[in-house]
Amino acid sequence: MITASGPTQRQTTSRQRVASREIHAVTDLAGFSVLAVQILGLLFLFHLYHLETYEFLVMSTIAFAAFCIHYWLPFRFKELFWIAVSIAGSFVLLNAIVAALVLGVGLAIFVIFRIPLAFRWRLGLVLTVFAALICGCVTHAFDIPRSFYAVFGGIFMFRTITYAYDLAHAKEPPSLISYLSYFLILPNYYYTLFPVIDFQTMRATYYRRNIHEIAQQGIHWMVRGGIQLMLYRVVLYFNDAYLPDRVTSLPRLISNIILTFLLYLDVSGKFHIIVGMLHLFGYDLPETNRRYLLASSFLDFWRRINIYWKDFMVKIAYLPVYFKFRKSGELRAQILGTAAVFGVTWAAHSYQSLWIEGKFALSWTDTIFWGVLGILVMVNVIFSHWHKARRITSGWRTRGLLALKTMGTFATIVVLWSLWSSPSVTSWLYLMSRWTRGPVQ
Fold first, then answer.
1. Whole-number Cα distances in Å, 128 to 32, 122, 125, 146, 149
2. d(Cα 211, Cα 208) in Å, to the nearest integer?
3. What are the residue ranges spanned by the domains of the chain?
4. What does the alpha-carbon distance between residue 293 and residue 412 come to, in Å, rounded to a whole number?
5. How many angstroms separate the Cα of 58 from the Cα of each of 27, 50, 54, 187?
6. Residue 419 CB contacts under 8 Å (≥ 6 apart), including other chains
């Protein structure tokens, strides 16, 4: 009996996957009309409420117009068209020099990853490119626009890590099309703070469902993101700049720390719009944030607040440490993996500020926030390990306990968040104690 070889099996699987995606991309005039009406309404609301800046409206208009063309294209041209729109859009949204530099350096990184050398040497060359750019960002050694570093960092600073990780474990190198569609994404030219989309997830979810279902999900998320951004404006209105002398009573202190935490609506709203927009072009990506105000434990909060970041940390920090130490004990491996996650997260946020702000930000408030949150999550991990066989009931006592745990988690998180948002530990201590002194005379 003759069996198919490995490459033939992979080719067959690849053809089946493409055929399935083509079926999911089949057009329908009625379905398109429903989506187009909603998109036009969404664009009208963006304009009516001045949701973001003028550049945001331009970017949204380009994306929505591109969808109307992209939808009707033959399947083999869809992703090429989206890449072309994204690259052309970069020259509309950015300075032409910045756009050209981002495209040029991005292509250079792709070429380096495809050089026929051992992976460690290719990775070393990419790290050399990053080191040179970081040096230029800090010292202004290169005669290029300062805005280039923020845009380049927003695109490549984290996603290059997950791309390199997947490349190191791939059976065959990703194509140029998959590379460009992963990095050069239209919304990323406007939003430098961007969710860390996983490369494998992006490829695996491409047209995995019917396009009408995917696009409708994206529209729902963009609506949710728009609502969150409008709520952010309300929070911003009532939460003035850091003025602790106005916190003259306990109720004012409580409202101050809650409103400070709710400023995160700006991030979650933008993330929903970004991922929702990508859904229009067939990328059936998962949700970025999930009801983080209802977290019932610190581990639950970590899993909800920024799902893409959590998955990124699990991939590059938790799992390598966990599998290295698993033989010495399950709980020990979980604790060490969790510690690695929060250590890397603390360092990564400083690394992010280097690209976006041009300086490597380190502060005691940042260190204490991630340290305490990491310890609280590790306590949850230990507790869950000890009680993993406990039977879950649905009585009123269980629901009442869940409500108390949710309120306790929320109260702790908002206090920690107020520390993280403070200029210094001294300023935060002053804010926490200012209400005991009464109004200013």
1. 47, 10, 5, 20, 16
2. 8
3. 27-220, 239-437
4. 12
5. 27, 12, 6, 11
6. 365, 368, 369, 425, 428
* Residue recorded with tokens 């430098």: 192
Alpha-carbon 139 to chain mean position:
29
Contact between residue 210 and residue 24 where contact means Cβ atoms under 8 Å apart: yes
Burial category of 5 from C-beta neighbours within 10 Å (exposed 0-12, middle 13-18, buried 19 and up): exposed
Considering the entire predicted model, what is its pTM? 0.91
- Asked if 208 and 179 count as a contact pair (C-beta separation under 8 A), the reply is no
Half-sphere exposure of 107 (CA within 13 A, CB side): 6
Question: Helix, strand or coil for residue 283?
Answer: strand
pLDDT at 44: 94
Dump pLDDT digits (tens) for 81-121. 999 999 999 999 999 999 999 999 999 999 999 999 999 99
Distance of CA 208 to the CA centre of its chain: 21
Is 95:102 a contact under the CB 8 Å cutoff? no
Q: What are the backbone angles phi and psi of residue 67, rounded to the nearest 5°?
A: -60, -40
Half-sphere exposure of 40 (CA within 13 A, CB side): 7
Residue 243 banded pLDDT, cuts 50, 70, 90: low
Residues 216/280, Cβ–Cβ less than 8 Å: no
Average pLDDT along the chain: 90
User: How many residues does this entry show for the chain?
Assistant: 441
